[in-house]
């Protein structure tokens, strides 16, 4: 039972362990002797502090978007990179981070990851333009890729087998808390000293985590001492994902048919195709892609991708809409409070769905959760320039219920029908899917948001007899970097810009929600076809080896 708990727990919380560890003498867990409880508590505190840091960093930026845009004078494309570049770095390196933890020891990866994260936070906090901001976010992603796998691994090495479930519960509670309060923390810093303090504080927190890990985790194993990292796999995955995101993100600036855009997509296709070919031939690959021939794991990837579309996408695009003075006009704190019911709903439902799935299986609850995601998104697609918060919160609660159901259940369902020997590799694949989807929803969603929003903005201005702005100006208006009446010569023109910007923001937000809703509903048949029912799932453990 303890083995099953550990395997399923790794799936529930998306902790990658990409390769089975070699046989070596088992390290003892903390026993009942003197000081054991204190040591376990100290290790748990370090793990929780690192996990909380990562959770707040992921969600806190969303309520600071307009302030960042106004301060640095950047548009929605740059904001997309500020969020997406972090996700991209984690996606490319999170499996490698787990591998390094196994080889060099998780104390090493926690200390090193904290240091890299802190440097990235300082760069982002001190930035004077979009290039420096994105560079800092990439460094933070590199540090997070090392930190994330080790936050769970140190608990598994410390807590006794019969109490692993308690450890997993604590881990999940901290993750949920960080997700719920991250926007509030980001909003408080933004409305208080500055949005930059989100990262100044993060840098201090990361240094404290690293120092604590260096002391507290000293008794933990030093790692397997193995040599060898799949360098070709890491490089091909990084190049392929980066080229894909660059191509999508830069379409507004380069044009869809430009040589630069075409080259980006060609490089992405070649690199990812080479990744599949190379990984199939290596004895110790970064990702065992042959596992994707197993329908339940494909289903887990589909369910995880749908969940991430809304877990990240809704927060990002809602804040672009809500923080503008031309629409809801919320402060950063008020926007985060407006999101609190959604976050609480996600947390509460995700905590309650496990017992239900234990009784009835995962197939139909996840299908229902995906349907709720689609329904909530389609509700939000009806938002227009005159809508208030009363038109948003019902849809956000429906969406929050769907996101809560699909937060961990798809990955748990997929790993449950695989033999435990494959759990590490499969969890690594699911992790990559989660972070790649997070980066894609911001980049591709920004393309929809800007395209539809700018078109609507221009149409309203044209109807009012005001000259339409260029793409760059429209981008800055929709991000909040430019005031809607900044070019106005009189009250009539200021009012025209106000109405046009509000219409553009509402159109951009509703268009993104429409497409996300359609994608969610389209994923339901794929999930049902790929994921076996309860009776077949129960037999899968024995047959999947």
SS elements, strand count: 0
Taking the alpha carbons of the first and last residues, their distance comes to 19 Å
Shape: globular
Largest sheet: none
Helix-strand layout with pairing:
Elements: H1 2-12, H2 36-60, H3 65-72, H4 76-104, H5 106-125, H6 130-158, H7 164-191, H8 197-216, H9 231-249, H10 251-254, H11 259-281, H12 295-322, H13 332-360, H14 363-380, H15 393-406, H16 409-416, H17 423-463, H18 471-479, H19 491-530, H20 534-543
Helix pairs in contact: 1-16, 2-6, 2-7, 2-8, 4-5, 4-6, 4-9, 4-17, 5-6, 5-8, 6-7, 7-13, 9-11, 9-17, 12-14, 12-15, 12-16, 12-17, 12-19, 13-15, 14-15, 14-19, 17-18, 17-19
Can you describe this structure?
With 545 residues, this protein is mostly helical. 76% of the residues lie in helices and 0% in strands. The protein contains 20 helices and no strands. It is globular. The N terminus and C terminus are likely disordered.
């Amino acid at each position: 039972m303890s083995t099953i708990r550990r395997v399923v727990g790794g799936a529930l919380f998306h902790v990658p362990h990409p390769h089975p560890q070699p046989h070596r003498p088992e390290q003892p867990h903390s026993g009942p002797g003197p000081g054991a409880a204190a040591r376990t508590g100290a290790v748990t505190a370090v793990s929780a502090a690192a996990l909380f840091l990562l959770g707040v960093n992921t969600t806190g930026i969303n309520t600071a978007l307009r302030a960042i845009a106004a301060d640095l004078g950047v548009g929605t494309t740059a904001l997309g990179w500020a969020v997406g570049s972090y996700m991209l770095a984690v996606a490319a390196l999170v499996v490698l981070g787990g591998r390094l933890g196994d080889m060099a020891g998780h104390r090493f990866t926690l200390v090193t990851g904290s240091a890299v994260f802190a440097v990235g936070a300082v760069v982002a906090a001190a930035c004077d333009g979009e290039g420096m901001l994105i560079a800092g976010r990439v460094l933070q992603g590199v540090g997070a890729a090392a930190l994330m796998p080790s936050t769970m691994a140190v608990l598994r090495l410390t807590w006794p087998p019969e109490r692993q479930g308690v450890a997993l519960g604590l881990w999940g509670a901290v993750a949920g808390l960080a997700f719920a309060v991250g926007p509030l923390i980001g909003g408080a810093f933004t409305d208080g000293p500055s949005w930059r303090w989100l990262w100044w504080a993060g840098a201090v927190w990361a240094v404290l985590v690293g120092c604590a890990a260096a002391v507290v985790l000293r008794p933990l194993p030093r790692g397997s001492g193995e040599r060898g990292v799949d360098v070709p796999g890491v490089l091909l995955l990084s190049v392929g994902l980066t080229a894909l995101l660059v191509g999508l993100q830069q379409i507004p600036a380069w044009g869809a048919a430009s040589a630069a855009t075409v080259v980006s997509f060609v490089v992405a296709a070649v690199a990812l195709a080479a990744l599949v070919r190379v990984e199939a031939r290596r004895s110790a690959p970064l990702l065992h892609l042959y596992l994707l021939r197993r329908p339940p794991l494909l289903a887990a990837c589909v369910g995880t991708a749908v969940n991430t579309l809304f877990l990240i996408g809704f927060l990002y695009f809602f804040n672009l809409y809500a923080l503008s003075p031309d629409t809801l006009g919320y402060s950063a704190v008020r926007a985060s409070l407006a999101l609190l019911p959604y976050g609480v709903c996600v947390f509460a439902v995700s905590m309650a769905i496990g017992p239900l799935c234990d009784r009835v299986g995962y197939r139909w609850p996840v299908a229902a959760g995906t349907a709720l995601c689609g329904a909530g998104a389609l509700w939000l697609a009806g938002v227009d320039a005159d809508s208030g918060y009363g038109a948003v919160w019902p849809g956000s609660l429906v969406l929050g219920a769907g996101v809560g159901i699909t937060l961990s259940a798809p990955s748990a369902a997929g790993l449950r029908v695989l033999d435990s020997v494959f759990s590490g590799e499969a969890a690594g694949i699911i992790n990559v899917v989660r972070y790649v989807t997070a980066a894609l929803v911001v980049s591709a969603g920004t393309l929809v948001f800007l395209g539809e929003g700018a078109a609507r903005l221009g149409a309203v201005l044209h109807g009012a007899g005001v000259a339409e702005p260029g793409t760059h100006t429209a981008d800055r208006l929709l991000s909040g970097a430019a005031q809607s009446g900044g070019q106005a010569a009189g009250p009539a023109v200021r009012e025209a810009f106000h109405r046009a910007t509000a219409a553009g923001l509402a159109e951009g937000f509703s268009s993104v929600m429409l497409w996300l809703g359609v994608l969610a509903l389209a994923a339901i048949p794929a999930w049902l076809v790929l994921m076996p029912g309860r009776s077949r799932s129960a037999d899968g453990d024995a047959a999947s080896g």
